[in-house]
Write a structure and sequence with these properties.
The protein has 397 residues and is mainly alpha-helical. The chain has 15 helices and no strands.
């Protein structure tokens, strides 16, 4: 695997840390800036909205740039807004930095994915995707707890400074490792041509399945704390351990999927999604048993991110003539799920259905994703039959 692909993973690690670290800093931010806890929580929502809207917009704006230039620009903006966020005493300015940072992060993600795939070559697409996505899982395991620790020791601003500082060596490495031009040497397709390519039904259905899988993942992940403390019976001190366990599983999942999905993508997606649906249902049923709960948290983390990696690779396979925009739409689908899943889980909790309810919602979302995959398989078979008929030689007269 080219060194530049690992550099992209390092940059994604820094950005992933910024994305998730606020969960451990909200109280200190609210107290320091004299705002409510709910207002501080909007900083996380603003980042998610910026990612969804920013992915296609920034990719469309920067699609004609050389990829190294685009990556450095997006990462530079990301560093700058974190410096501003660390210095400001205004809640409004901090909120604006989260939106701008999300736009830069979205653009970086879209370009990083297509760059990694181009550098790795067609036979190692899934492995390259796994390295980039793996940066997020490492952020969950290492970056987020470290950010929370820095916030506890030196205040929430220290975590923002740390994200900016970690991003600087990544920027230097990108400057050295990523080629200056287009790595694949392919001609640049027109914007309208790329957008038309994204309107293909199979691609849109795959993006919908991606959003459902991520919605199921983050629906339960967002409410693991009340599940393990109110149902499983663990004390509050176990919550970081359970979250880290999910992150360890996620890292293992993307690593394994990267090695398997290049050779057997359909099997990885099909088996992974089926196991996810069964696993969420099993967790809902056995959440009261500590050993079963811990085991399933680890397995579901591995399955969720492993399947997600294979689905991202499938998106690029379905849109070879629109790689940059395909990467942006894959990023948007990921964050649509990440925003929608917790909202649905919150509705279930608010309806008084109990602390297991978000896990049942995850199982339901996975059933919908499986239905979408079945429809995708049917359409694929129909397309192959149509192509076979068209290629069949006409009978001689």
């Amino acid at each position: 695997m080219p060194f530049a692909v690992y550099v992209l993973g390092l940059a994604v690690f820094a950005q992933g840390t910024s994305e998730f670290m606020l969960s451990g800093l909200l109280s200190s931010i609210a107290g320091d800036l004299h705002v409510s806890l709910a207002a501080a929580g909007l900083l996380t929502s603003a980042f998610a909205v910026g990612m969804v809207a920013g992915a296609p917009l920034t990719a469309l704006a920067g699609r004609t740039w050389p990829r190294r230039r685009a990556l450095l620009l997006f990462l530079g903006v990301f560093v700058a807004v974190h410096v501003v966020g660390a210095l400001t005493s205004s809640y409004g300015v901090l909120l604006a930095t989260r939106v701008v940072g999300a736009l830069a992060n979205a653009g970086f993600w879209a370009v990083a994915l297509v760059t990694a795939l181009a550098l790795a070559g067609p036979q190692r697409r899934a492995r390259a995707t796994a390295v980039v996505v793996g940066g997020v899982t490492v952020a969950c395991v290492v970056g987020v707890p470290a950010g929370a620790l820095l916030g506890e020791l030196w205040g929430w601003r220290a975590a923002f400074w740390a994200v900016a500082l970690v991003s600087v060596p990544a920027a230097v490495a990108l400057l050295v490792a990523v080629p200056g031009g287009r790595p694949d040497g392919a001609p640049q397709a027109g914007a309208r041509s790329e957008l038309r390519a994204l309107a293909r039904p199979r691609l849109l259905l795959t993006l919908l399945v991606m959003a459902l899988v991520q919605g199921a993942t983050f629906c339960t992940f967002s409410y693991l704390e009340p599940l393990v403390t109110r149902v499983t019976g663990f004390g509050a001190g176990w919550v970081p351990v359970v979250l880290a366990l999910f992150g360890v599983g996620s890292f293992a999942g993307v690593t394994l999927a990267g090695r398997l999905a290049d050779a057997r993508p359909d099997a990885v997606i099909g088996l992974g999604m089926t196991a996810l649906a069964a696993g969420w249902a099993a967790l809902a049923l056995t959440a009261g048993h500590p050993v079963a709960a811990l085991t399933l948290v680890l397995l579901q983390g591995a399955l969720a991110f492993g399947t997600g990696t294979a689905l991202i690779t499938r998106v690029f396979h379905l849109a070879p003539d629109a790689p940059t925009m395909a990467g942006s739409f894959a990023t948007a689908a990921f964050y649509v799920g990440a925003a929608t899943g917790p909202w649905l889980g919150g509705l279930a909790l608010g309806a008084g259905l109990g602390f297991r309810a978000p896990v049942w919602v995850s199982a339901l979302l996975m059933c919908l994703a499986l239905a979408g995959t079945a429809a995708l398989s049917v359409s694929s078979d129909a397309a192959r039959r149509t192509l076979s008929v068209r290629r069949r030689p006409a009978p001689e007269r």
